[in-house]
Amino acid sequence: MTGRSSIRGHVAIVTGGGAGIGLAVVERFASEGARVAVLDFDEGRGAAAAERARGLGAEALSIQADAGSRADAGRALSQVLSAWGKAEILVNCAGGFTFTDPLEELAEAEWDRIVAWNLKSAFLCAQQAAPAMKRAGYGRIVNISSQAGREGVLETSLPYSAAKAGILGLTRRLAVELAPSGVTVNAVAPGLVLSPRVAELHKDRLPQIYAQIPMRRAGEAAEIADAVWYLSTPGSAYITGVTLDVNGGRFMC
Length: 253
Description:
There is one protein chain. By secondary structure, the chain is of the alpha/beta class. It has a single domain, classed as 3-Layer(aba) Sandwich (Rossmann fold), CATH 3.40.50.720. It has helices spanning about 20-30, 45-55, 70-85, 110-135, 160-180, 195-200, 205-210, 220-230; strands spanning about 10-15, 35-40, 60-65, 90, 140-145, 185-190, 245. It has a seven-stranded parallel beta sheet, with helices on both faces. Helix 2 (about 45-55) links the parallel strand 2 and strand 3 (about 60-65). The protein is globular.
């Protein structure tokens, strides 16, 4: 380690790293000199993100994987350990939603898909990464939740909200279990961040949403990445089990 705020040379795994907040985290880490493994279901998107990381001077791997698959999560961790011999940072960023169906119209398969995408993926990837972190006596796990996991947000998906609330419970429970091993587990709960997918979903109601945000704007993916970066540094060593809300003041706790 070169300092309490430095992750230079650290090995970071970012799930969902090919787009949106995940891509912003990849770029932030790469700019800090971390070695970054980009996990993404979309092989082309992940490869492009890894290439951007290399353009910032970082070592990077692109791993096509479904983070919600135990086999894929295990294979990805094996590739990281084979390449770099360690795994110090895990950012569970895979997730999202594509529909906002009301309760009566929500298909069971859609529930299962969204919960696996957002919650099961974090469990499986943490399960795979934790042994290496425990052996090293050091690790940082950052789970991406959402304002929708903190309070009722009607414009989001029902299973997404449930899964993101589950992330908070997972974070607290894992934090207690892994703390004696020098591994911290924290969550970041973003408010509205306008990725292309989210912008399309909310295009007809953005003025109403902005009116509920004291800062009167959406957040930027890079602003979420800054919060993730801090919780991934050596200097955050005495912070575990917490949720950092990054939402322009729309939700305060």
